[in-house]
Amino acid sequence: MAKTKEERRNEIIETAGKLFEEKGYEQTQVQDIVNEIGVAKGLFYYYFKSKDEVMEELADRYADAIIDAVNKLIDKDISTFDKINRIFQIFIDSAEKKFGIFMGILNVKNGITHERIFFNVGKKMVPLVTELILSGNDNGECNCSDPNFITEFLVSGLFNIMNQISPDEKIDYLKEKLPTIKTMILKLYNFAEQKESK
Q1: Choosing a second label site near 65 at 20 to 30 A (CA), which of 55, 99, 123, 144?
Q2: Where are the alpha helices (DSSP H) in the chain?
Q3: What range(s) does the HTH tetR-type domain occupy (predicted)?
Q4: Are 142 and 80 in contact (CB under 8 A)?
Q5: Mean pLDDT across the stretch 73-83?
């Protein structure tokens, strides 16, 4: 049975993602992708203009996976402080788990894909974190007068800094700065001093 256009398009994206993970983005050519699937090169260009365009699709999926993980975290029965802290761990875990995709996103030469994922994640992250802080205000964990502004400040500031760090140093940099980020969270959101649960 012939595959639908959507099935074929998805097959190209998933195959490209697998090869980017195995070989690296720069080392993977369009020919490698079509060889893996067993189709002509023209079929690839029927769906995508370039390898970069496939990576943009993968970047969107990567961003959606992060947001999905954050949404699941929000429903857990842990403190607001722990939820905010674990959001940063989700970023680190996602980057390590999908390292080939992560590096591919950061190494696309036109830079659009890199900006796209940070914009997509940041845009969706701000209202989620703001909602968490408002909940923390309600239950007395924190006392933040303008959670939306502070969240935008934190997210945009962090993403701006990360944009200036070389791709292969980003994960280690974020791990190194995690204690400082947690201290900032405590102070900026005006959390009562507390220990993070295990």
Answers
A1: 144
A2: 5-23, 30-37, 41-47, 51-74, 80-97, 99-107, 112-139, 147-164, 170-188
A3: 6-66
A4: yes
A5: 89
- Per the structure block, which two tokens stand in for 76? 């857990």
Query: Residue type at 43?
Result: L
The stretch 134-141 carries a mean pLDDT of 93
- pLDDT at residue 35 tops 60: yes
Q: How far apart are CA 43 and CA 193, in angstroms?
A: 58
The closest of 71, 89, 94, 79 to 179, measured between CA atoms, is 89
pTM: 0.73
Q: Are 25 and 109 spatial neighbours (Cβ–Cβ below 8 Å)?
A: no
Domains of the chain: 1-48 (1.10.10.60), 51-188 (1.10.357.10)
Tokens read off for 5: 């256009």
